[in-house]
Each structure stands twice: as C-alpha cells, then as structure tokens.
Amino acid sequence: MMGRSFRIISLKIILTSFSVLYGEDLTIASVFGNHMVFQQGVSIPVWGNAEPNDSLTITLGSRSIQTIVDEKGNWHVSFRKRRVSHNPIELAVRSKTGQIIIRDILVGEVWICTGQSNMEWPLSASDTGHEAIEDSNNNNLRLLNFKKGLSTYNVPYLGDDINKLFPNQFYSGEWKISSPESAAPFSGVGYFFGEKLQDELNVPVGLINVSVGGSPAEAWIRKEALASHPQLKIMVEGDWFKNKALEPWTVERGNENLTQAIEKGLPIPEDELGYNHPFKPGFLWEAGMKPMIQLPVSGVVWYQGESNAVSDWRVAQHESLLKLLIQDWREQFQKDDMPFLFVQLPGMKRPHWVEFRVSQQKVHDAVSNTGMAITMDVGNPTDVHPKRKQPVGDRLARIALEQFYGKNIISHGPTLKSKRFRKGKLELRFDHIVKGLKTKNGMPPTGFELMDEAGEWYNAEAKIFGLNKILLSNMEIMNPKAIRYGWSPYPEPALNLINSVGLPMAPFINYE
Questions:
Q1: Residue 304: is it exposed, middle or buried by C-beta count within 10 angstroms (0-12/13-18/19+)?
Q2: For 283-336, what is the HEC assignment?
Q3: Is the pTM of this model over 0.85?
Q4: What is the model's pLDDT at position 23?
Q5: Tens digit of pLDDT for each residue in 375-433?
Q6: Over 90: is that where the pLDDT of 227 sits?
Q7: Judging by DSSP bridges, how do beta strands 99-115 and 205-211 pair with one another?
Q8: Taking a C-beta distance cutoff of 8 angstroms, is the pair 246, 240 a contact?
Q9: What does the DSSP 8-state code read for residue 472?
Q10: Across-strand partners of 422?
Q11: Which of 432, 427, 308 is nearest to 374 (CA)?
Q12: What is the pLDDT of residue 20?
C-alpha cells in the first residue's frame, strides 16, 4: 500500500494536471477550451484555480465579473444565461501574473456521451464511417473527446501508467470543430447522434465523449451513492479485488493490469477500496463525471451494459444500479429532470441478454425523462461490437428531438396497444405505426410466440392485417395464455417488423 509521503506529493500533481495551464498559477477546468459550446438558456459557470486571495477579472463576451480566489486556491463565477448564438465569443480570465483566453465559443446544446466500448467505438471503425468522415466539416458541431490514459485490455500498467491511475490524470482531450481529423476518432454513436441534432435543430451542438471500453456501471457511480443504497452498498465494502459482489471478470482484469506493478512495489494510488483501476467502483465517476458536474448540459447519452450482463446475479443488480446512476447524476448536476437516453442491448448470442433487456425496459418505464433506443436489428450474433452505429445514433437523436425538443418526429417503433380473439386467431393492435406496419423484407413478421396452458412456448404464424393489426395463429394452441416477441438473445430468423419510417419494435412479453 502507498505511503503518506507519496499521497502529499501526488496531490500537487492532481491540482494542476486536470486544468489547462496558461499562467504560472492561474488555471481553468479542462472542460473549457477553444471551440467549445455553452449550454443555452441557463447561467454559465466558469471555475478553476489560482493563487489564494488573488483578484481575478473574468470576461465573457462584453460582460465582466471580478472575484477573489479563496484560501484553498479555488475560484468560481457565474454569468447570466445566453441565447443560442452562432457568432463566436471569447472567455478571458486575468490575474496579476497571467491570463487565460478561450476563443471561438458558441452557445447551443451540450450533451455528454458515455458508457463502455460501444460508445467508445470510433466513427472511423463504423460501417458508414468513411462517408460520414468525408462529410464531417461542420462549424456548428463541436467535439470534446476525452481519451482514457490507460488500456483496459490485458496489458500491464508500468512506468508512467501509474500516474494515470490518479482520477484527475486519467483523461485528456480538447474541444475541436467537427472535421475529418476530429470526427474520425470520436464516438461513432455520439457523432451520429450529434450530427442529427445539429441538422434538425439548426443550433450549435457540443458533444463530450467520456467512455471506457469494458467498464461496469458501478465504476461510473459515486462510492458514497453506492454505500447509501441498501442493496448495493456491498459493492463498496472492503478491497474491491476481494469483493464477491463484483463481476469476477472485471476484478480479474484489474489484477492482470496491476499485478506486475504490485510485485515491483510501484506506488499505485489507492483508497479504502484498494488500488485504483478504471473498473473499480466509483473510479470513472471521479475521473470523468465529477469534473463536469458544474457545467450545464442538456442531457446524457449512455451505451453500457455488456459488462453487467455476464451472469444472472449481475443482471439482477442492474436495474438498481442504473436507477441509482441516473438519480445520483441528476442530483450531482443539480438537474432533477436531466434527460437520460440509453441503448437497449442489441441482438447477440450471449446468455442473460434477454433478462438484461428486461431490466433496461423496467428502468425506462419507471424513471421519468428517459429514452431507450431499440437496436435488436443492428446486432451481430458473435461480435459484441456491431459496426452499425449510424442507426443507433439516429434513433437516440430521434428520441431527444421528440421528447425533449418538441419536434414532430417519430422516435419509436410499433408498440402493442391491445389484443383480442378474432375468428380463432389472436388479433394484436399497435400504436406508433405512422402510415402502417410493414416488414423489412416484405415477408410475414417473424419473432412472435404463443404460450399454451402448460406454459410451453411455440412459434406463431403472423400476418399483417390492415394498417395497424397483426393476426397470430398456431393450430396447436387454441387458447394461448401469453404472447412474446423477440424473446431471444439473437432471434433467428432476424426480426423484421417495423413501422413505415423503418423503426423496429422492442421485445415484449404480455400475459394479460
């Protein structure tokens, strides 16, 4: 374990490394930078560090505020809210010893994109990424790509890697105008989401990508929030390397990354939960989210779940974990209704994914101001990283545009409205069909099943009837007790039911 003398020395590193340093003592938080976007319609906070008791003048556009740095070296001011603006403004912070000038700031909509590898997955590796990159020059789309400092694959952390295990040194990045150079390494899902928002709203859009491949949900939740939860507090009790309430795979990866450093006696940062690591409960909250909580944002886009769907008991944790994450992030951002959009896991041949999707659906149904994008049709049977990121980003944007921006746009696929028996068949009636139900391939709908009186499930023949109805039948089941749709990790044949704008239906089960 690390000695006290190392802790004190490292604190000095933490205080300066997270900020952008322009003067000898004057710094500003790293979420600020040239080409950034401020959130419209809310007050604009600006903060950083400087020499204690120093006097500062902070100017945003034509407005200036004077303040005194507190005894701990912190400063913070807040400017009045601004309307959408495509005209760039400057932010200047001046002290006796230095100045910070941030140029080309726009005002519009700001979203955080976060999660694990499918959010981290770059535009350049997406199936339509090449075309999107060629067309990515957009002055009104700004990207802050916080890159993780360490690999989360099976590689040892040695040398300079150890310093990256301080939360305030884990990420690095800067705001950039969308271009082929900046868009290519950015999140594919995030890019397609932001591109559609910007196009539909015609306002500047800023995206902050802060994601880590393989990361479990508990790494993104404050330790204090986990500790206060009756069922989840066990996840932060004692050394996380020995905690059986955590996924063994994530703990094993922590050991693989740190074993050599431990054996060499390197000064690995730690706290009451043990050595730091990207998968440790609370670490990514400290490293990625906490530094941004003062920054006003419109909402969050979340693509995570694969690392919490490995076993049945992990799936059983998930509903509580995601609800806690949403609740606590909203409290920390001081925005009780902050939109939270997430991606239901796509089709893949992995156990427990049906149950995991159920947990996601429950969160969506129970928590207000959430939206869930359905991706059953864009998965891959054996690849946890499906390359089709454009439909995912597009569907997330559709939800945001309809639910939170009031646009007249369709954001959901068909949903079951009612059912009844009709001439020996089960008639299903659907909402959100737009101009009518259809299938992708022109064939009869697939993926429907009926349950008999003994509780056994059987495939059902399905036929579209009229604009918004489907007739189900199975000659062996005359009195079905339940119906379900898409109830498989990877349905085969592929699900094909969509509405007239091409949006798929979510998996469901109905016993009523």
A1: buried
A2: HHHHHHHHHHCCCCCCEEEEECCHHHCCCHHHHHHHHHHHHHHHHHHHHHCCCC
A3: yes
A4: 47
A5: 999 999 999 999 999 999 999 999 999 999 999 999 999 999 999 987 778 999 999 99
A6: yes
A7: parallel
A8: yes
A9: E
A10: 425
A11: 432
A12: 41
DSSP 153: S
Tell me what pLDDT residue 8 has: 28
C-alpha separations of 258 from 10, 153, 264 in Å: 19, 12, 10
What is the CATH architecture assignment of 106-411? 3-Layer(aba) Sandwich (3.40)
Angle between helices 188-201 and 390-399 (to 10 degrees): 40
Amino acid letter, 467: L
Q: What is the dihedral of CA 229, 231, 233, 237, to 10 degrees?
A: 170
Structure tokens at 368: 């207000």
Sheet with strand 469-473: strands edge to edge: 415-422, 425-431, 469-473, 461-465
Q: What is the pLDDT of residues 23-67, one digit of tens each?
A: 458 999 999 999 999 999 999 999 999 999 999 999 999 999 999
Cβ-based burial of 189 (10 A; exposed 0-12, middle 13-18, buried ≥19): buried
Average pLDDT across the chain, whole number: 94
Residue spans of the domains in the chain: they are 106-411, 415-510
